Amino acid sequence: MTGEDFSILLLTLRVAAISTAVILPLGIAAGWFLARRPFLGKGAIETILSLPLVLPPTAVGILLLSLLRPGGPAGRILAALNVEVLFTWKAIVVATAVMSFPLLVRPARVAFEEIDPRLIAVARSLGRRPAAVFARITLPLAWRGVAAGTLLAFSRALGEFGATILVAGNIPGRTQTLALAIFHRSQIGQDGAALRLVGVTVVVAFAAVWSTEWIERRRARLRSA
Amino acid sequence: MIELDLRLPLADFTLEVAARCASPAVAVLGPSGSGKTSLLESIAGLRRRVQGRIALDGVTLQDSTENVHLPPERRRIGYVPQDALLFPHLSAADNVRFGLSGSDAERTFAEAVDILEIGPLLPRFPATLSGGERQRVALARAVATQPRLLLFDEPLAAIDVELKARILPYLLRIRDERKIPLFYVTHNAGEAEALAGEALLLRKGRLEAHGATRSIVEQRLAEVDPSASFDNVLDGRIASEERDGAVSLELSGGSSLTVPASGAGIGQRAIFAVAPDEILVSLQPLVRVSARNVLAGEIRAIESLGSDAMVHADAAGARWRAHVTEAAVTDLQLAVGQPVWLAIKTRSFRRLR
User: Fold this and answer.
1) What is the pLDDT of residue B272?
2) What average pLDDT does range B148-177 have in this prediction?
3) Could you tell me whether strands B25-29 and B198-203 are parallel, antiparallel, or unpaired per DSSP bridges?
4) Is some CB atom of chain A closer than 8 A to the CB atom of B44?
């Protein structure tokens, strides 16, 4: 593994981690909201949230580009705040966050739906306010689903390609993530170097999945002890 | 004092209950699906669609004409549902601690653990507890929060639970030692009588009867709830030791019964039950008989249950129910006011807990 490979890996891990951390509270809130509250327009919101799953990533990339470009709706606000996003690592975070968001929301929502609402009711009758009940009962009980969703979202963020390349480009040393670098190297005929990076991604993915499984096994042992 | 005047639309009918209950313990009777659980959930504030008024000791918990609906966390009502609903990810100890905060948290925790005798269960998780153990932990969890009212919903399946696993002795202790008012859903008439002087009888959401538990049990319950169980429940104190592992149980009226020792020590309060099927009714005094309890009494009521009948009799300062066939009623010409003798074997008595 070369120094360049290593910095590509670091950048990829960093943006995937930031992206996942940014969407985690939003995804939990959205999952809980969709699971518990029937409201007007719920179906429409569910569909919009799922769109990144079904649209071609490049289409999402174009949409984001038109939002973020100078003079675009979001671009104007960013310019006023003097924040540069397009073609920086921040653009990767935006692209991966949008692309991986539905993968977090779905399992989180299913996990919240599976909680017996009477458990929540009993917790409140014991004198606890809704916020405390959420922190100590609802969220811990939905832990498996939230963790599974987080892992899925993180994995998606590690490998995101189509949307990323449109909003962040493929600038070596600046916005070149593992997925982009593998593509780039194979395009210019460096198949060996590309395969080296493939090996790196396999190791990272394995570690992520295995550690989640390990945490879950440990919890299961604790509970049945 | 709890004042109820509520309506709650349910799938098959509307629950409508208007009653004022002043007893320290109130039994809620009625067949499955008559609205008993919905009534408890309405009082606890877990049903949003309740209309009407609910007040506890003069504090309005709900009044739909004034748009008052106190959220459950502000009602200070402990609710133990049929399936206990322990938090599955918390140990028994953390379940009991869940509602506690402040300086006296440790004291109320210790008291609840003591009264429900769940010390050995504390480190365990709900998945590893039996049904009866879960209910005790759920009761401790509710009692520890020092509620103004405790709602206990006993599952129908609890009728088949072994007597020693029954929850009644713990409810009696909560009533007598902690003085927490209770609403108690049960299908066991004897236990209802032992715990609660006042009862509500529900059928299809309507209040069929409200009054003394004894008269509701004797006059209405068998007809309204065919699955109710009519155990005779005796609450007394162990007075002395007798032969062959038997002890004498002194009832509050002063008379005594011979019952199996079952681990109860002299001077200790103990609760025994005997099924109505186990009691023999005789028109003559039984002598030279193997049963060690032969009680002289008088028939107070005979309730026809189709092919058989329930004989209610007063003897030894207690009210007894004996289950006999309709043929026995005819052949012996049993009638109200007639003197009878009840024979009960020592071994027919089972200690609760």
Assistant:
1) 92
2) 83
3) parallel
4) yes
